């Protein structure tokens, strides 16, 4: 799963839209979100919204290195290591359980599920349904955190299914709404380029010389 996620990250970074104008926001992740949305906030150090590819891979390497260092340092100290293990487990479960939330918000804002494959939705709902069923029917003891996070994620998947049923795959109107900001950037760049061309043309037309000046 980790390898697949790394491949998906590489593909997502390589296929980001190019900036419409020099210094524009077109190449930044989430640049098309509507102003005033829950994600329209300035993140510290632009976390996970970097323009370059390298910071993403550097962050993952630093995260892996930090986890290895903590594992080596806390392993001999059993009480601290137990608490550390529980903390890592809860963080991992919480992050996994909240994965569908950004997709839910994006679908609600664009009134469309365009780009979200039905096969992915079916896999999410089916997989989480079987996981929750196993949590509550297993003969072995399953921690409460697994059950709570599993139920929350399954509920989010069901909401995604409802959105797909209501919005569908989306049409041309949803596409235009989704790319409104990118089109605005393109329009501003086009007007600036057109204005610059006209000024240059006017300058060339005005730069006429008489025979006396030419001599």
Automatic annotation (TrEMBL):
Keywords: Membrane, Transmembrane, Transmembrane helix. Pfam families: PQ-loop. The keyword Electron transport does not apply. GO terms for cellular component: cytosol; endosome; membrane; trans-Golgi network. GO terms for biological process: phospholipid translocation; retrograde transport, endosome to Golgi. It is found in: Membrane. Gene3D superfamilies: 1.20.1280.290. Residues 187-197 have a biased composition (Basic residues). Residues 187-215 are annotated as: Disordered. It is a multi-pass membrane protein. Its main location: membrane. InterPro entries: PQ-loop_rpt (IPR006603), SLC66/Scramblase_ANY1 (IPR052241). This is PQ loop repeat protein. It comes from Metarhizium robertsii (strain ARSEF 23 / ATCC MYA-3075). The lineage of its organism: Eukaryota, Fungi, Dikarya, Ascomycota, Pezizomycotina.
């Amino acid at each position: 799963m980790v390898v697949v996620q790394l491949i998906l990250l590489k593909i997502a970074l390589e296929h980001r839209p190019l900036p419409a104008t020099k210094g524009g926001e077109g190449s930044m992740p989430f640049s098309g979100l509507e102003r005033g949305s829950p994600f329209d906030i300035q993140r510290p150090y632009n976390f996970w919204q970097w323009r370059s590819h390298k910071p993403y891979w550097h962050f993952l390497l630093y995260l892996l290195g930090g986890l290895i260092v903590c594992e080596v340092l806390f392993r001999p100290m059993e009480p601290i290591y137990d608490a550390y293990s529980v903390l890592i487990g809860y963080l991992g479960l919480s992050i996994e359980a909240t994965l569908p939330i950004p997709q839910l918000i994006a679908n609600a804002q664009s009134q469309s599920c365009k780009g979200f494959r039905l096969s992915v939705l079916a896999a999410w709902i089916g997989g989480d349904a079987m996981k929750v069923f196993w949590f509550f029917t297993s003969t072995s003891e399953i921690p409460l955190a697994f059950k709570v996070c599993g139920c929350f994620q399954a509920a989010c998947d069901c909401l995604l299914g409802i959105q797909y049923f209501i919005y569908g795959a989306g049409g041309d109107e949803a596409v235009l709404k989704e790319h409104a900001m990118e089109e605005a950037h393109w329009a501003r760049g086009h007007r600036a380029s057109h204005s610059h061309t006209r000024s240059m043309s006017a300058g060339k037309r005005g730069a006429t010389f008489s025979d006396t000046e030419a001599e």
